[in-house]
Design brief:
Elements: E1 2-3, H1 10-36, E2 41-45, H2 54-62, H3 95-103, E3 107-111, H4 126-139, E4 145-146, H5 158-163, E5 168-169, H6 188-197, E6 219-220, E7 225-226, H7 238-254, E8 261-262, H8 272-293, H9 300-316
Parallel strand pairs: 1-2, 2-3, 4-5, 5-6, 7-8
Helix pairs in contact: 1-8, 7-8
Amino acid sequence: MEMNWGVHDVLSLEKYKGNLLGSRIAIPRMLQLFNDYEIHATWAIVGMLYCKNKKELLQRLDNLDLPYEQEEFSPKHILSYVGEEESVDPYHYAGSLIEVIKTAPNQEIATHTFSHYYCLESGQSIKNFEKDLENVAELQEGVTSLVFPRNQTNEEYLKVCKMYGISAYRGNEDSWIYRPYTSKTNLPIKRAMRLLDAYIMVTGHHTYSINSIKATSVLNIKSSRFLRPYNKKLRVLEGLRLERIKKGLTEAAREDKVFHLWWHPHNFGKNIEENLRFLEEILKHVEFLRDRYGFESLNMKEVADKFLDEKREVDSNT
């Protein structure tokens, strides 16, 4: 899961204010559930959220070149609306929340890039991306996992990730509707199919064995399912949405495979009770599968470490 900046214009800020404030209530409660059910999770955090104040944020952004053709993709576009620090602007700073996550057991801190960097949008380049990761390295020491914003995986950029200590990233599901897309290629038919797939099995469960991960310099810990938030208009379908996820988890447990579930914490910022209740139903099922099949909960770093351990064992026996 990732903590996502996600606000690049004034209209978006107005639209998501409730979600962003609500996430400050939802995140500690998520962490409590994770502790109760012994869940290991990865939190991919946008580096800008680490900045202590606007002065630091401006200094770091001033050193970045973010030449997107669509200038609204750059966070520089809304700096006049950013407050001085977290106590007066809880939308653009999150130092206190990050500390809460850091102290919780079994939680991995990963990166979502510094500036919520879009690796496939027109105008930007690999040199711009590298400069972004320099800031990540300074602010988020020891980070080894990355989630590309908007799932814009750019395989050419993985060599830069490796240079900065990234050993794993979250890739997309193996289906045409989940392939990396830009703002121009995210077609309505793809969005509609992804929504349908959340309730009815269209593309499969996307489980996979750890030894099927390709032994590249940066490991692709592929996604299996996006946990969509509660939607009042679709509440009659909540049972289908839950069963879709539970069946994927069951397949993974029975066949000793990975099921990688992800979402944004601000997705839980509205309808908090409904979303947390739904999450707990998933975690109860994970607990059942742990008791019955020995199913493990692992964060991305732990999956990568397990893959490397198994590979070393195989190599030593050949």
